[in-house]
Amino acid sequence: MRGRNTACVVGLLLAVTGCTATANDTTTTVPTTSTTTVATTETLSAGDGTPGATGLNDPYNPSAGNGGYNVVHYELDLDLDVATGDMAGVASIEAIALDSLSSFNLDLHGLDVSAVAVNGVETASVVADGEMTVLADLDRGTAFTTTIGYSGVAGQVSSPSVGIPNGWIRSDDGMFTVNEPDGAPTWYPVNNHPSDKATYTISVTVDDPYTAVSNGLLMEKRSGDGTTTFVYSSDDPIASYLTVVAVGLFEEEPEAGPQGLPIRNYFSPDVTDVERSYFSRQAEMIGFFAGLYGPYPFDSYGSVVVDADFPAALETQTMSTFGRGVLRLEEAVVAHEIAHQWFGDSLTPASWRDIWLNEGFSTYAQWLWTEHTDGPEAFDGLVDNAYRTMSGLNLVGEDVAPALAAALAAQQYPPPGAPPLTNLFNASVYQRGALTLHAMRLQVGDDTFFEAVRSYAMAYQHQNVTTADFIEVAEEVSGQDLDALFDAWLFAEAVPSIPQLGLAPPG
Predict the structure, then answer these.
(1) 35 — phi, psi (to 5°)?
(2) Which has the minimum average pLDDT: 25-34, 41-50, 181-190, 261-270?
(3) Closest CA to 367 of 436, 302, 444, 464
(4) Closest residue by Cα to residue 160 from 60, 290, 301, 37
């Protein structure tokens, strides 16, 4: 990999003596020996503490994330060879021990570890079955830094929750990461659960003339021997599934957002002018949503459009990622990902069970943008179409009886408050989730509804949230008991009626 000695990339951060090597004009030092290949999970114990849990008992994915600590900051230094997919990395992870620990785990898939240190002292580790266990002797409340040198080939991991690959995806002119919900461990060691948000500094070194794009503000761009290092930083906490690295022959098209907000757009060269035009109103969208939900919650925004027939867009924080395959949705999908910066990115679910708080809110915001641009009739059409789809009314015809239509819809579109693990991002969390908000709006009135949603967005800015959090704010602002409404819309099998609109399920 451009001559880098991947066994010697960690030492500058470990601050111990050993072999030296020069890579990208930086001399680094690491231990001459590593215990990572001889340790086993049985040998990893130290002091009087207990091992940190290998998962956070998320009701949908109990093994996701790890217990015993909270991460404060990730500093990632990644060297990526786009042609081969080879990569070498150094991760410096600042965390706080929540228990007295004899060891702790990080999530890591398909990568080899060359050296590990805790607070500058080399320690043992073992990687197996997507878990990296690190020897530690940490008292409760201790702040500690773990430095890890690793390498491997950019790969993917299967996820039971989504129908798209997670991990590294090839584009026609580069590659990019897809992390939601399980892809982050394919490129760095991480506490991979949305409840453990942290700040990030991400440095990516690539061969010229590639450009590397990531979260936050571009702080530095350093030229090396035929390479360029791009350094990005974010002072606001990010959930690991919202991180991104995209590398390509991008054309940058910056613009100014509201109150001077920097908006940086990166397009692969073959992205057409028509496709680029869908992004021309991002500044207006941000201003529109800020009027509804409160000030834009971050220091920058941008979009990266990769030249891949990738059928999705991702709300990667401050730098949304779009495959060209999703641009058939035109401007609407751009509005959807911007709305996610409030709902999903600033306010992040504490558990994957509550994914409707991301997708239902952003879908409804997308509908509101359509109303803003195309008028009330367009909005009403979106509501009517979503209701007919979710309830099964669109299936009723000569060959399908109402009762069967309702049953088929219930089977295909489960309640959004409890989506199945194997179909976490089904259409119900988007459309019935959005209908839930509209039903609330019709019950409490426009002024109260928007006051409640804005209060929720502001009260939990940069925090993790649950469905109960939103209901509590909605009831406090409205002065109404809304439990029956949310129980029916989020958890009942049958889609409720909307009497104000004359809509009722078939049967």
Answers:
(1) -95, 5
(2) 25-34
(3) 436
(4) 60
Starting at the edge strand found earlier in the chain, the sheet holding 69-80 runs 121-122, 112-118, 143-153, 86-97, 69-80, 198-207, 227-238, 217-223
Give tens-digit pLDDT for 312-334.
Answer: 999 999 999 999 999 999 999 99
Dist CA 112 CA 9 (whole Å): 13
Query: Where in the chain do CATH 1.10.390.10 domains reside?
Result: 349-501
H/E segment holding residue 500: none
Query: Of 439, 428, 447, whose CA–CA distance to 499 is shortest?
Result: 439
> Cα(482)–Cα(488) distance, rounded to whole angstroms?
10
Rounded Cα–Cα distance for residues 96 and 118 (Å): 12
Closest by CA to 344, choosing from 418, 425, 282, is 425
Rounded CA-CA distance 109/444 in Å is 47
Name the DSSP class of 440: H
Q: What share of the chain is helix, strand, coil (3-state, %, to 5)?
A: 30, 30, 35
- Give CA–CA dist 193/205, Å, rounded: 27
Amino acid at position 254, single letter: P
Q: How far is CA 474 from CA 99, 323, 499, in A?
A: 35, 35, 21
Residue in the structure block whose two tokens are 């999908």: 333
> Phi and psi (nearest 5°) for 493?
-65, -45
| 3-class DSSP assignment, residue 43 | coil
Residue with tokens 């571009």: 218
Q: How crowded is residue 399: how many other Cβ atoms within 10 Å of its Cβ?
A: 7
All CATH 2.60.40.1730 domain ranges in the chain, comma separated? 35-250
Per-residue pLDDT tens digits for 342-400 = 999 999 999 999 999 999 999 999 999 999 999 999 999 999 999 999 999 999 987 89
CATH 3.30.2010.30 range(s) for the chain read 260-346
Q: How many angstroms separate the CA atoms of 257 and 278, rounded?
A: 16
CATH of region 260-346: 3.30.2010.30
Please report, in angstroms and rounded to a whole number, the separation of the first and last CA atoms in the chain. Answer: 64
Apex 234 CA angle, 53 and 461, nearest 5? 75
Domain 35-250, CATH: 2.60.40.1730
* Those residues with Cβ within 8 angstroms of residue 48's Cβ, 6 or more apart along the chain or in another chain: 100, 102
The CATH number of 349-501 is which of 1.10.10.920, 1.10.390.10, 2.120.10.90, 1.10.1370.40?
1.10.390.10
Whether the predicted model's global pTM rises above the 0.85 cut:
yes
